[in-house]
Amino acid sequence: MKIPLQIRYRGLEPSVMVEEWIREEAEKLETFFGAIVRCRVVLAVPHAHHQKGNLYHVGVTLTVPGGEIVVKREPNPAQRARQSETAKLKKQFEVEAPHRNLRQAIDDAFQAAGRRLQDFARRRRGSVKTHQQPQCARVRKLLPGKDCGFLLTEDGLEVYFHRNSVLDPGFDHLQLGSPVTFVEEQGVKGPQASTVRIHRKRATRTPSESPAALAL
Fold first, then answer.
1. Domain hosting residue 43, numbered range
2. Which of 53, 36, 56, 44 is CA-nearest to residue 7?
3. pTM of the predicted structure, to 2 decimals
4. Among 7, 56, 141, 204, which residue has the least CB neighbours within 10 Å?
C-alpha cells in the first residue's frame, strides 16, 4: 500500500523527477513500519541562496499512530565544502547531473526518518522496553477543546498525552514550550505519555509563610 504523500516546494519549481525520488524513498519506509498514516515533505531553497543552487532544505514529517516523526535537514558549511571539493575531483570523469545535491539532501532526510521510524516500530512492538525512567520533553501542541496535547521528545518524536496524565498543578498550567518530564507507556493508538510533570522553579517561602507561622 502506498503512503499518502504531500509534497510542497518553496523557492524551486515542482519536478516530476524529484517527486519520483521522494515517492521511492517514502515507499521504502513501509518496510520499517507498515501503518504510516501520512508523509509530508517540504523542499525549500532559502531566498538568499537562490543563485547558488546548492543549498536545499528538506523536511519530512511522518504521521504515525499516536504522534508524528519530524526530520529537518539543512546542509551546514562543512558539508557544502566537502560537496564542492568532491564535485571538483569528479568533474574530469563525469558531468554533474541536475539536482544531484537535492537528491542527496532528500536521501539524507529519509535515512534519518527511517532510523527514527525503526525506533518507533521497535517500541510499539515491545522489543524495546518501555521507558520507566522519566524522559525530558517540551510541550509541542495543546488542544484544550479535546483535553489533550503533544510533547516533543529530545529525539524528535511527538508523543500524545491526555489532561488526566498531567500531575498537579494540572493541564491548565501548561504552555507551549513548557519543559516537562513524562513516562512513556503503550496506549490503544501507540506510545503515549503518562505521569506528565511540569518543571517549574520552587517558590521560596518567606518567614511569614513558614510552617511555624502558618500554625499560629
1. 5-125
2. 44
3. 0.51
4. 204
